[in-house]
Amino acid sequence: MRRTRQRIALLVLPVLVGSFLLASGPAGAETTGPTAESGRSHLENPDQINLVRVHLSGADMLDQVLAAGFDLEHGLKRVPTGIEGEAVVTAEQRAELEAMGVEILADHESFTWSDEADGGLQSVSARSAQTFSHEATVRIARADWFTTKGQGFLYVEARTTQGQQTSPVVTMQLENDSGPGSDFAFARTMSRFVDSGQYMFHRNLFKLDTRPSQIRVTSSTGGVTTGPVSNWLEDGAPPLTANPGYKWDFVDGYKHPQQLHDRIEEIAREYPKIAEIVYLPYQTNGYQRKAQATIGGTGQAAVVVSSAAWGHEGGNDISVEFVNRPGADLPLAVEVNGNAVRVLLAKNAAGALASTAAQVAQALKTQSGGLIDRAHPYRTNAGTGIVQASAPVALTDFLDQKRVGAPDGEVPRGPNTIRALRIGKHRDGRNPGVLIQAQDHAREWVPATTTLETAERLVHNYKTDWETKKIVDNTDIFLIPTNNPDGANYSFYNFASQRRNLTNHCADDNADPARRNAWGVDLNRNYRVGSAQDGYAGGSFSCVSDTYQGPEKLSEPEAKNIVWLAETYSNIKFFMSVHSNGGQLFWQPGAYVANGRVTTPRPPLRDELFYWQSASRILSQVKAHRETVVTPENVGGSSDVLYSSAGNVREDLYHTYGIYAFGWEVGGSVYNPTTGNWQGGSFQPPWIGNPALVSGHAETMEYANGIMEMFRIAAEWGKDNKKPTSKLVPGGGTYPGPVDVRFEADEPVSIYYTTDGSRPTLDSPRYKATEFREPGEVFHVTETTTFHWFSVDTAGNIEQNYDPSKSDTRNNFRKATITIDN
Description:
Elements (H helix, E strand, L loop, with lengths): L1 E4 L7 H12 L24 E8 L2 H9 L9 E3 L2 E9 H9 L3 E2 L4 E4 L9 E2 L14 E11 L2 E10 L11 E6 L6 E12 L2 E11 L5 E6 L4 E5 L1 E2 L25 H14 L4 E5 L10 E6 L7 E8 L8 E5 L9 E5 L2 E5 L12 H11 L4 E6 L12 E5 L24 E5 L9 E6 L7 H16 L4 H9 L1 E5 L4 H9 L63 H12 L3 E9 L3 E4 L4 E2 L4 E2 L5 H22 L8 E3 H4 L7 H9 L2 E7 L3 E3 L4 E3 L16 H24 L6 E4 L3 E3 L3 E7 L3 E6 L24 E3 L3 E9 L20 E7 L2
Parallel strand pairs: 8-15, 19-21, 25-26, 25-27, 27-32, 28-31, 36-41
Antiparallel strand pairs: 1-6, 2-4, 2-5, 3-4, 7-11, 8-9, 9-12, 10-11, 10-13, 11-12, 13-14, 16-24, 17-18, 18-22, 19-23, 20-21, 24-26, 28-32, 29-30, 33-34, 35-37, 37-39, 38-40, 40-41
Helix pairs in contact: 4-6, 6-13, 7-13, 10-13
């Protein structure tokens, strides 16, 4: 492994947004405040931000950075020397990261595998194969082969029972054959993945010319095992867009929240037999803020003033003037004339100004006739400085951007009602519900267009495409194209990098207008299960952190609305929270307590297998559009493959309501065969870019394919009345000595079993995985044992119609006896 100089797309949001949106939608901007206006303080200027690539030494440093509140959530990638990622930072924050030991990468700098470097391709002598058994110190969890853009890749995960040792460091070496019938002739070194001090597994993604049929993994501690290679994703699986006459490609550019709301309401009016709008009950803060100014000088002499009324409701009409009157021994006073507030500064016996910032702030709060709601010294200053006179300064909410094409020319102010478009022939609870929630994070524009494209495909193809008709007839779909309309408007018109909503929970020390781009709650940290308040990592208590969890669980209306949907429509059984960018597909566990890496409860083996099965289908449809592959290393429990995200929505919906809850980071890396690199995405890629690489349009189309497949999964699940079948492998019989056995089934199931001759029930032991991200456990049978068991699939069907709740003579559970003939 070595660092090589490569072209990496460096996203500098202020430049990017101003350039590509000219042709594709309303223009966003990184505003710096109206400093050109006479009398305004430079203290009102928000810091400029940039998105930079970073290298961290490992998981411990990642935990440290996230705990400090840095926005380091997208584009993370494990590399052999640590973790690479992207950070949205100011110049001051960049310096803080570097002080913590984080390396800032140059825009051409990255890590890549090289066949010539250490760990590359090298000849080795063949070793004798050893099949998997209970005694093996090495296990292969995954060995997945896929192709993209004419190149083959093999992803491998393996564990060693010695992996937690740190001295000596365990190394793993992978050997692969060159096809059926060939020997193990080559090897590569695998990287050890440690998270929060805990060994996870060894893993790597290898570029290969030929698909191996088997691989062998050897540990430096002496373990060795072989295993088969499986295909990851279904090459050539046709998406619905391949059906004759199928209509698609409806969305022609990025859409702001008003356009999204208008369009889904039009759809409901145009297709009333299959569509309606659900207006969610908890209104958001709205695209509105109090009017503010920072006046009177710098440092200890600065005073921050905020209006009582919202800016658009009168706050923007207020002016504040600090007046130096002639004379001596004059008291501090405040005069109010209409919306003009004049602070008559005190003077001492020598005729010098004598009012401190703290005194002026107190006078404004108590003597402004109710016009001023908050007044305080600047940030953490005590306000001991003497305030200087100033000309009248107009208060402003800084929301001065105009909406292109709107009748009134401005973004609507006031509380916002979030809409969900409900699509289904039968919207009465009889069919399984699927909730798609997009744009929790404001700057993520592709998820909104992906969700809208999905809605368009459903209604336009219902009468002409049989597969679409089956979806609409057999599911109950709820689509929220923007779950954070206030933040999204702010992202479009004020600050492109806005992540959170627009509710300001900050106290005076962070309430000045220069902090306006740092307010709000991370909606995907505001839920109840695995929250930061309960000690889980990945959510911040700082109101100016981009992962701020909020003042309490479910403090935000946007989060309350999702819970309301789950409780009001109990038929919702599937959920997808669509984010960008990074190219991951996630489920539980999503959070852990960093000390000891204690995760939220893991899904049982049945649900884990169902998630993997669904992911394969969904991601195969994504690949069918332009060969974008979401790799296996980026699929699974989010806390297992990347990081802990306390209080995320997936965790709450799964554990509280039993909903199969996915999280999707769209816009993943696309392999570039010209350079041999994986080209990363961005929050707001050019709408029409290189269609083979980074393009908002292409991402919208391919990920809409995946969501349509999720609807098909839900429809099939709702119609599933087939009983599962399971077996013990190898089966019952007589064996000359101890034998290893395991359960297998024809679909994802929970298997409840006994070995003491008793009747199995739902309280019996449940068959579990050997370890997370691994197949089912292996039983080492050393004496004659009888297994009794039954299986239950995800739809609740029980094998052989067995009723575990009744103790009667119909003991039609499965049975097998392993006789050990010693």
